[in-house]
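Annotated sample (chain length 452).
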Amino acid sequence: MKQRTLITALIALTALVAPHSVLPQADEKLLPCSVSLRQEVVVETIKNPVIQEETLVGGDVVKREMDIVDMGSGTVISRSGLLLTNYHVWQFEPRLRFDKASNVVFRMRAATEDMLVYMLDPGNVFKEPKKKYVAQFVSGDEDQDIVVMKCTLDANTGQEVTGIDLPFLRLGNPFGIPMNARINILGYPGIGGKTVTMTEGKFLGYVGDDDCTIKTEAAISFGNSGGSAVYQDTLFGVPTAVSAKQGGANFGYIVPVTRALGPLIEAKLHHGEDVPVVDRKWIGSSMNSDMSKDNIFVGGKVVSAQTNAGVEDARVWIFRRDRTSEQIDSLYKEVRKIRMILTVQKRVRAGQSVADIAKSMKLTEDDVGAAAKIDVEENASRDAKAFFSGEFFYTFIDTGGDGFFFTLRRPVPRNAQLTLVVAREGYRRVEKPLNTTDDLYLDLGAIKSYPY
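Output written by the structure step:
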């Protein structure tokens, strides 16, 4: 009896220390959240091509065909069909191949900005994914290499889809993973064929104090881009760079999911999407080097007080309250002039002629000569020097019909006393105080502007 009890205990212990290569059942359930993203493209055969400065500017299109190409991977992040992927996966760059022998160019370009979503059958995740949905662009940030898309059409019938209920991955903290913890990469690398691939590796920390991109030894190959980096059944990042052997070790790189904050908030404010939550504590982590740590996302919509229709081409200014509108306008003009001067001086140092600089920058040659001699450091105002040192003074954006959204390219500081100004020809100027908080975003809602 004692021997049987001992054997039973040993079997249980063996199960606990089973090698990591064995796929746990919990992990297998995550696989349907990983999708393959493909693009419909137009492939053209062009005879007698005219190429100027490595750009195709003419020729005779003799053949045009449709094709579908693999672009990368994505992750379902909401039951309603929101997807997260890399910007470079969504952005299809036209491709050219020149056959000198036959004087023919083959050009491949995207047929549409939408992407085809291939999904796994939850009943058999080891089969190839099937074409299921068409996903449309919702929001994105090229600098952060993040895009949010949404499944909107049935890819096989073209019919609009509503009320879908998809398996999805919850977001997880990219700054709460222990060193050398085991993580998984899910996606569709070309080297792995057409089926989903899950690789395993260690979390190896971050690139640096100023770059919180995550390092891993887990294999990341072409096609994995845009996929899922998973820890404890949550999506903590998006694989974005393939592994490269350095010093005898393989390294891959992962964008932390916190960099999706801007696109997610824009999807919520502009498009009314029910987006997953990025925890405020993650943004405030000492390891987060992103500008979101100190800046707040601000969105709203300028509408006509008469019709409630969106007002396009209005300029929305946000600036510090200890400066007047006149002072900000003066600083804005000075900053533009300094940037022009610095550009001229840079081109002069590069050896460009005064005539070429004047032509390309739409200046007179006398203006170029004068700008080349100015000592910016000596002549700049105190505010201008502080502005170029990174101190916040102002930011602005022009509105579209769907409103405006201040991203990290146009940062707005948290916990600040500011002024909001809306200006457009034909409308009365709006000016009012704006106090930002420590929240992740500020929704200004509808700002009424009165025509005159």
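Annotation: Residues 325-388 form one domain.
Annotation: Residues 207 and 213 are 6 Å apart (CA to CA).
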